[in-house]
């Protein structure tokens, strides 16, 4: 008998609104306690405990124990990728809508997608890398690195020759659910975001997935990749 992936089981777990809210709140790659996840989902601690047990059993979450405390995180980057791609599916609304709340605007502008940068800034940076010939989009949802790209990343402080490719390659295309375009993911995307944070170009929020672009980062992105963060913020 040939084994088959149990897609229905994973889809059932994600389909519940409370469980989906918990999963989406973990898309920044951080681990969070059950109390925070219960608050994010708008459910009681008892209900949250039941949902978390199902998500753990289904492989969508893993748990870390520190003393008497338990912290939950996504089961891996593959889970984050599924969530982001599912979020991008849907009919585009043409009706007039209320302006998004401030936090939603911040997430649309720049946010963590598990371990890499997403949102309008993430897409714009990817466009800049492609326009300058540092990356080339390939047909299998990957990005190929060019010699100019290897040199540019090295000048920025990232030696891409030392990165270990995942089974999906060194750089992959991740569909951005707010922009409906691809941004840079994979080991290269993760290390590049880490570099931008350590260099003071980006600042991660302690309480959400939102990412702030610093004044140093605005100047650097404009100079290096032609990304006008001011215009993008106004558009958001």
Automatic annotation (TrEMBL):
Domain of life: Bacteria
InterPro entries: ArsR-like_HTH, HTH_ArsR_DNA-bd_dom, HTH_Metal-responsive_Reg, WH-like_DNA-bd_sf, WH_DNA-bd_sf
GO biological process: response to cadmium ion; response to lead ion
GO MF, one example: cadmium ion sensor activity
Entry-linked CDD domains: HTH_ARSR
UniProt xrefs under Pfam families: HTH_20
Membrane-crossing residue ranges in chain numbering: none
UniProt cross-references to SUPFAM superfamilies, sorted A to Z: Winged helix' DNA-binding domain (SSF46785)
Domain (HTH arsR-type): residue spans on this chain: 1-94
Coiled coil segments of this chain: none
Database matches in PANTHER family: TRANSCRIPTIONAL REGULATOR-RELATED, TRANSCRIPTIONAL REGULATORY PROTEIN
Protein name: Transcriptional regulator, ArsR family
Natural source organism: Caballeronia sordidicola
């Amino acid at each position: 008998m040939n084994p088959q992936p149990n897609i229905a089981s994973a889809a059932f777990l994600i389909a519940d609104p409370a469980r989906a809210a918990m999963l989406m709140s973990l898309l920044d790659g951080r681990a969070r306690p059950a109390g925070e996840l219960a608050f994010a989902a708008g459910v009681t601690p008892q209900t949250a405990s039941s949902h978390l047990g199902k998500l753990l059993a289904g492989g969508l979450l893993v748990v870390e124990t520190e003393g008497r405390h338990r912290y939950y995180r996504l089961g891996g980057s593959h889970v984050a990728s599924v969530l982001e791609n599912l979020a991008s599916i849907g009919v585009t609304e043409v009706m007039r809508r209320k302006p998004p709340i401030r936090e939603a605007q911040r997430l649309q502008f720049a946010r963590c997608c598990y371990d890499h940068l997403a949102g309008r800034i993430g897409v714009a940076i990817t466009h800049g890398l492609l326009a300058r010939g540092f990356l080339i989009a390939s047909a299998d949802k990957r990005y190929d690195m060019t010699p100019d790209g290897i040199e540019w990343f090295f000048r920025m402080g990232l030696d891409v020759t030392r990165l270990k490719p995942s089974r999906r390659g060194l750089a992959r295309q991740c569909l951005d659910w707010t922009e409906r375009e691809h941004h840079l993911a994979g080991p290269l995307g993760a290390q590049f975001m880490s570099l931008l944070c350590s260099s003071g170009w980006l600042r991660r929020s302690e309480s959400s997935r939102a990412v702030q672009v610093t004044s140093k980062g605005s100047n650097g992105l404009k100079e290096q990749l032609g990304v006008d963060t001011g215009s993008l913020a106004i558009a958001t």
